[in-house]
Amino acid sequence: MPSMAQNGRVTTDFKQSNQAHNSNAFARREEIRQQRESLPIASVKERLIEEVKKHDVLIIVGETGSGKTTQIPQFLFSAGFCREGKSVGITQPRRVAAVTVAKRVAEECGVELGQKVGYSIRFDDRTSGVTRIKYMTDGLLLREALLDPYLSRYSVVIVDEAHERTVHTDVLLGLLKNVQKKFPPLKLIIMSASLDARVFSEYFGGARAVHIQGRQHPVDILYTLYPEKDYVDAALVTIFQIHLEERHGDILVFLTGQEEIEAVERLVQERLRQLPESNRKLVTVPIFSSLPSEQQMRVFMPAPDGHHVDSHIQVVLATNIAETSVTIPGIKFVIDPGFVKARSYDPAKGMESLIIIPTSKAQALQRSGRAGREGPGKCFRLYPESEFEKLEDSTKPEIKRCNLANVILQLKALGVDDIFGFDFIEKPSRAAIVKSLEHLFLLGALTDDCKLSDPVGHQMARLPLDPIYSKALILASQFNCLEEMLITVAMLSVDSVFYAPREKLDESRTAAKCFASPDGDHITLINVYRAAEDLLEKRKWVPHTERNEKIFKAKSEKIFKRWCKENFINGRSVRHARDIHSQIRGHVEQMGLRITSCGDDMLQFRRCLAASFFINAALKQPEGNYRAFGTGQVVQIHPSSVLFQSKVECVVFNEMVQTTNKYIRNVTRIEYMWLTELAPHYYTMQS
Ligand code: CDP
Ligand code: MG
């Protein structure tokens, strides 16, 4: 009987695939077990556990890839540190690291993510009541301290990647030092990849430091003969040189951000197409912080998309996230252009900007080290050797080069009123604290005597956003345009919504025009968001059944992808913005803010932008440039703005970037008169 035969065959197939699945799963478990056992840290497990038991503060220094982040929390779990419902919390400076490591550790433990092992980062929480090993960003643990100042749910807090010295790590160390005073003290472990543990040890009163021996193979360092004019181009040439000459081993390229990574991805694809078929066995894998989490794990997989690892070279295009936060297996070649995107703050002007600066020597060494994890490797530094000598020894802590408004707001919410007296591991300058206090005062977050204002200051501290954006949301509920502001803030929180490939500049600019608003970039961003929302959500052809839902999803995804391509829109960024949007919406709903839309009344929305971003307003100068009111700086509208080369008189903006010129980005046209009307405390003060 045909149906029997068919049934029979289906059953056998199923059995076979099930068996295959079981043996695959078994092989994977075995592989993981072996990998774990061969890590340098495995041989010192018992000694480490003893050290943690003996010391309330312990500093652990170990080379990247020795197994600190993935193994130590598991050691502590097995040693009974998670009894009575307590957890081990591990902070990471970067979202991607928290997510990818948690996934890996869940797999190592053979549990589902979000059960025993989970992660929690801003706008994404994968933990539950049974989570005992929790990876999170340093910023997130700071937020938790707002609700639970003694961090009482943790038995051990591990501050990982402390050498990165992010502003959140520094503040967290200060808070933890205070929490330590309570009895019984919270156990604290500080982990760092830099050999110099002194600064942490001294800060914690001579705390014990242990070093874990790593395993490092020799790495050949190659320099260019002359400085490179265009490091992106130089990186591209080097990728293909390695691909065509060396033929085996994966490549890791350090770039400065999403935009650059995506540009290189496209350029590599293009050049590949010009090569003969047999030379095209190369795949690019991007990794940066705002990459959707399902794509972040790709770097840990052997060549993706069904390609076999032996036949394809992987080119991992990473930000400095791959320096120490995540260890990518299989890397033999490192390409290091020698640059990093960093925050920079000018307290005199109160202006924070993102700039691309040379790495420090310590960073360059970490980067080259990535090539020698599994065997001898090579590192191509895209600058002459003489330049290396000129680099700073180590990177300046972020707290010394950022706007402190956010941190101060949180410290105030934690009851730390005397910011100048706070025991920072390294004190920010007095000028920077004063300027940031002034900034918060102007936003209405502080009272005359520098306390958090009620309700605005408290509301702002509750939102996980830059204070200026939190204030914009609060104001928008009064201006009846919170719908629009939620979208705006979500879109401003992601990188580059539009992309403009060099070779298709005109085409991409024409495409962008369909969304452009003559009023500026904020409304343009709303237009893009709403158009994407329409594609992804509008159900024109209901009925609403499970099957329809599936078909609809697949279909709309396809349409969305095509639409992104045709319009030069970065689908990843728009999806990320949609995620952020739903999270912040949840927060403002909880706070009881009224979510209404101003409909077509964009005048109302622009007035709200003026009221929110008045600190960043600029006026056109006779010679065509703009002058920022607050700082007096001469700036230009960035070429990516819809107001580039327009003749508008007065604008507000969100971002300043400095390349050869000072550019302002995310710009909207306003009336000068609104500023004196809506921010009289600032604009009468100025004149
Ligand atoms: O923290 P540390 O740099 O000392 O090492 P780790 O992050 O614990 O990594 C230990 C090992 O786990 C490395 O060999 C990584 O390649 C591997 N790993 C992985 O395969 N997949 C991940 N998602 C994370 C780590
Ligand atoms: Mg680590």
TrEMBL record:
GO cellular component: nucleolus; spliceosomal complex
Region of interest (Disordered), residue spans: 1-22
Gene Ontology molecular function terms on file: ATP binding; double-stranded RNA binding; hydrolase activity; RNA helicase activity
Pfam families for the chain: DEAD, HA2_C, Helicase_C, OB_NTP_bind, WHD_HA2
PROSITE patterns reported for this sequence: DEAH_ATP_HELICASE (PS00690), HELICASE_ATP_BIND_1 (PS51192), HELICASE_CTER (PS51194)
Recorded catalytic activity of this chain's protein: ATP + H2O = ADP + phosphate + H(+)
SMART domains: DEXDc, HA2, HELICc
Domain Helicase ATP-binding: 49-213
InterPro entries from the UniProt entry: DEAD-box_helicase_OB_fold, DEAD/DEAH_box_helicase_dom, DNA/RNA_helicase_DEAH_CS, HA2_WH, Helicase-assoc_dom, Helicase_ATP-bd, Helicase_C-like, P-loop_NTPase
Keywords carried by this UniProt record: ATP-binding, Helicase, Hydrolase, mRNA processing, mRNA splicing, Nucleotide-binding, Spliceosome
All residue ranges annotated as the Helicase C-terminal domain in the record: 236-415
GO biological process: one example: mRNA processing
EC numbers for this chain: 3.6.4.13
Protein name: RNA helicase
